[in-house]
Predict the 3D structure of the following.
Amino acid sequence: PMASGDVMSERGRFKHGQRVHSLSAMRDGPTSAGSEFPASFEEELADSRTPVPDQVAFRIDFGDWLGGLTRRDRAMVEQLASGQRPGEVARRMHVSSAAVSQRRALWRESWGTLMGEPVTA
């Protein structure tokens, strides 16, 4: 049996109130309200030059950030991140290109705030 202090043991997770999620489970669908990581981003993130701890931290942070967005905003972010042009996203989401541009500025600011980066004009 695993020690109760080991985060991988069921008893340890219960004792410390922790949860463990595999990255593949996060790809298959949301595991909690703030842990959504779209499968569509996996190919873009497959980069052997980035240290694994940095990859994991990004997946967690980005999933949390996406989880804080509305469903509509999440859909727009995912479409833009998959390489679709802002005009295509605007048409698909029934908004103006200006609205997509404004949302992008807000998303950039909120991501920067989450990452502790100074907000610049």
Remarks:
- The longest helix spans residues 97-114.
- Confidence is low (pLDDT under 50) at residues 23-35.
- The CA atoms of residues 22 and 31 lie 10 Å apart.
- DSSP finds seven helices and no strands in the chain.
